[in-house]
Amino acid sequence: MKNPFSFIFKLEHTTASHISFRLFGIKINFLKSQILKERKKIAKYYQSFDCATKIPKSTGNLRLIQDAYCGFLKTFDKICEENDLKYWIDFGTLIGAIRHKGFIPWDDDADVSMPREDYEKLIEKFLNGFENYPNLEIHFENNKKNKCFIKLCHKGSINLCLDIFPYDSYHNNLNSEEKNALSQKIESIRKRSKKFNTIEEIRTDFQKLTKEFILENKEQASQTPAIFMGIDFPHAHKNKVFDWEDIFPLKKIPFENIELYAPNNIDSVLKREFGDYMKIPKDSYPRHSNYIEIEESERKMLENYLQ
Fold first, then answer.
1. Reduced to 3 states, what is the DSSP secondary structure of residue 131?
2. Alpha-carbon distance 239 to 274, whole Å?
3. CB-based burial of residue 213 (10 Å sphere; 0-12 exposed, 13-18 middle, 19+ buried)?
4. Where are the domains of the chain?
5. I need a labelling partner for 27 at 20 to 30 A (CA). Which of 54, 132, 210, 305 fits?
6. Mind listing the pLDDT tens digit for each residue in 137-169?
């Protein structure tokens, strides 16, 4: 029998960690109670340390995911080298490299950023069929509204999805006050409420908004003075604008047992993104994977990937 109240409430699906339903057409995701309890337990454990650098490496399933990500990042580094593409580790992955010499102990994903030109070239390569890497594909992380960045995913694993974020070049040198003003402008544009039906529509709109309202249709300088977070992705960092010299030239730094590209002035970048990045945050728990219960097929896939 059809639910007469489906226009008010409709259960969509459940996953290992979430319950999803619609209330008056609005999609709502809830963490399952056992996952919520586990997160609180993990956060309490990590916050018991008086110094972030004293926290030991993760163990068990979470460490297996992190080890697999190291191999995945190494593959991504190779792809970029083979195709002359620039990238750098960013956000939590960059914090981990500096604060923990690798993964943040509770982290369960990886973040990299790219200049817009290289980001678009990577998309083009995969959309046209990247025969050298048949097990990899890109997904657009999109809500048909105000985000549309890409994830590089392994076809055989639900846990290996690398978040890739674009940065755009700016045409003027900016002082601190001007950087703050531009950051606020970027955020206000990013939060607009216009809806789209396709990935192509929203990407075209992002390009148009960036050109008209952020870059103000001005020509790029021969030596680019600044770089800013593209409006494609939803990180709500207060500061979104950096001096060109903060990012470039890129340099390789140790990360676990490999080396990856990082910004030129890591301390400056992380302070603008996070403030005191050596402090243990309150939300110190895995966010993206249900590492507590990995299916046997997924475990074998990750173990085989490491080999």
1. coil
2. 9
3. middle
4. 58-306
5. 210
6. 999 999 888 899 999 999 999 899 999 999 999
